[in-house]
Write a structure and sequence with these properties.
alpha/beta, 19% strand, single chain, Metallo-beta-lactamase, Chain A
Length: 337
């Protein structure tokens, strides 16, 4: 565990998400808990060496990598309202699916025999400001990655715990995302002046870490858009998986898991394109007179979307939004090693 600022600690070494500990004059706040039970117990032990007064456990999302160690803390859980809704639906099958992730590691599988889901007792929707002694804590809804994704900002040290809005050197999980909302929030993040950001996964970073994630989302949007507008099915659009997999490093034994993660992202983006474009495609398939379903704002009059308003030559130097870039240009984007 590393102290990144006075009274602000982060454990970067667990299998799942990064975990944080923030000290205040009135007690401590834990940020996320490990997925693997032994690591959950280790996290409790590390925290106990520093404080015996944990006020709250804050989950930045509802995914297993952030929540399964909640049971080891004798403190109420705080999260976004959407996280509570998701976690309330988790049954025994959720634990079984988690165990299945470790088929080749039976010593980890057996650790989940006594795992139980501890749901949030306290929820918020927009922002929750908590004042504990001399320290102010701002719990913020961020969205994008999932409807529940949230962060924690500490004004006195100018540090943001971003949750999975930002990850470093790892394939972002797009399976439950709103990709345009995610891009908009990443743009907002670039305009902030945080001293440091604790990402959901990966090493301590600053706003420069936004660009690889933003490039990844734009690239997937462009590639899936191209597939959709050529009239290809969701299953056929899975060719995008092999085109995306080398954008971030991964351990060889995790390739199957990463492919599943990308596949879920392709499926999600495909559905977004279907909502935006309706049943039309570049080949003219579908009913051309049918008004597209609305999700993203529709072009007024007979305007085309931004990616159709510019020629390839005009786009060469444009890198503002994914809507301003062609699929071919996205292919040439610098990949992140």
């Amino acid at each position: 565990m590393e102290e990144i600022a006075p009274g602000v600690f982060v454990e970067f070494g667990y299998e799942g998400a990064n975990c944080g500990l923030i000290l205040t004059d009135k007690g401590a706040i834990v940020v996320d808990t490990p997925m693997i039970p032994e690591e959950g117990k280790d996290w409790v032990a590390q925290v106990a060496k520093i404080t015996d007064n944990v006020l709250y456990v804050f989950n930045t999302d509802h995914h297993r990598a952030h929540i399964l160690g909640n049971q080891y803390f004798n403190a109420p859980v705080l999260a976004h309202e959407s996280a509570w809704k998701e976690m309330s639906s988790y049954k025994d099958t959720f634990i079984e699916r988690t165990k299945s992730l470790f088929k080749k590691q039976p010593h980890i599988q057996e650790q989940f025999s006594e795992t139980r889901i501890v749901k949030p007792e306290l929820t918020f929707t927009g922002q929750l400001i908590m004042k504990k002694g001399e320290r102010e804590l701002r719990f913020m809804h961020l969205g994008g990655h999932t409807p529940a994704t949230s962060g924690l900002y500490l004004p006195d040290v100018n540090i943001l715990f971003s949750g999975d809005l930002l990850v470093v050197d790892e394939h972002p999980a797009l399976g439950q995302c709103s990709s345009k909302e995610w891009l908009a929030k990443l743009e907002w993040l670039t305009q902030q002046n945080y001293k440091a950001i604790v990402p959901g996964h990966g090493t301590l970073c600053n706003v420069e870490a936004v660009e690889p994630v933003r490039c990844y989302i734009r690239t997937m949007r462009a590639k899936v858009r191209s597939q959709y507008k050529q009239g290809r099915s969701k299953a056929e659009s899975a060719v995008v998986i092999s085109q995306m997999i080398d954008m971030f490093p991964f351990k060889p034994n995790r390739k199957s898991m990463i492919e599943k993660r990308i596949r879920a992202g392709v499926s999600r983006i495909y559905d977004e394109m279907k909502v935006f474009y309706g049943h039309e495609s570049a080949k003219g398939k579908g009913k051309g007179n049918k008004k597209p379903l609305t999700s993203d704002p529709q072009p007024k009059n007979n305007e085309q979307t931004a990616d159709e308003q510019m020629t390839d030559e005009q786009m060469t130097n444009e890198q503002t939004t994914d809507e301003q870039m062609t699929d071919e240009q996205m292919t040439d984007e610098k990949k992140v090693a």
